[in-house]
Specification:
about 270 residues, mainly alpha, three-stranded antiparallel sheet, globular, membrane, P-loop_NTPase, Peptidase_M41-like
């Protein structure tokens, strides 16, 4: 509702195509700040003008949303080997995220480069990001590892790439927060030993060792979760990667249609 009200301010001098509601846009932009929403509507209007359209359509809004989130769109990959590898990487993220009930739903998957990324999988986060369960965090870690797992499963350990670098940093941040800020580790205990500030506290050598071990245990557990899912549904992974290579972008709905041909797509669970 808050985003709808902000969007109403920023569309006063812009014409939306028939059938588009502010509710639709608000649902697509979970997590956007007021400045992000202003940029979104301005960018949408610019794209509509460039495309000689008399009104802003959902195509412009979706493209502008992607640009606000991830940066400028690059040129499609021409190298078939690179494109295939990126397709498997993104398919890994998307399938793991779709098959874990506590993971955010997939919004879109693409192998078209944007910003620094060679491909991207977008997820739609729930409204309340202030209350996140252990199951949700572990699902997000497994989803983040899905790209590396797919590379390793399909191409072998010697062919994994640097493409998972950002994913692995994200995994470390989430796992470390679980251990040191949220007391979500049996190894360390239900205590908060880090407030998330810069620099961090000075840990004893024994506690530091326990923290490192706990972080690794969480990462290893989630890696195995992702591996089991993709190994079990390897035929589905191949199919999604194949369609990504051909179409370059597929929607979350289309992804779920494909997965449903191979296995049941679970309902997404609430925080509890």
């Amino acid at each position: 509702k808050g985003r709808e009200q902000i969007l109403e301010v920023h569309i006063r001098n812009k014409k939306l195509a028939e059938g588009i509601t502010l509710t639709d846009i608000a649902k697509r932009t979970a997590g956007f700040s007021g400045a992000d929403l202003e940029n979104l509507m301005n960018e949408s209007a610019i794209l509509a003008a460039r495309r000689n359209k008399s009104a802003v359509t959902m195509d412009e809004i979706n493209d502008a949303t992607d640009r606000v989130i991830a940066g400028l769109e690059g040129r499609p990959l021409n190298n078939n080997a690179s494109k295939k590898l990126v397709a498997y990487h993104e398919a890994g993220h998307a399938i793991v995220g779709s098959l874990l009930p506590h993971h955010d739903p997939v919004n879109k998957v693409t192998v078209i480069p944007r910003g620094q990324a060679k491909g991207l999988t977008w997820f739609t986060p729930g409204e309340d990001q202030s209350l996140i369960s252990t199951a949700m965090l572990k699902a997000r870690i497994a989803g983040a590892l899905g790209g590396r797992v797919a590379e390793q499963l399909v191409f072998g350990s010697s062919q994994v790439t640097t493409g998972a670098g950002g994913d692995l940093q994200q995994v470390e941040r989430m796992a470390r927060a679980m251990v040191t800020q949220f007391g979500m580790s049996d190894d360390v205990g239900s205590i908060a030993i880090d407030d998330g500030g810069f620099g961090g506290p000075n840990y004893s050598e024994d506690l530091n060792s326990k923290i490192d071990s706990a972080i690794k245990n969480i990462s290893d557990e989630c890696f195995q979760t992702a591996w089991n899912l993709l190994e079990t549904h390897r035929d589905c992974l191949d199919r999604v990667a194949e369609e990504l290579c051909e179409m370059e972008t597929i929607t979350g709905d289309r992804l779920r249609e494909i997965i449903a041909q191979y296995t049941e797509v679970p309902e997404k669970m609430a925080v509890v």
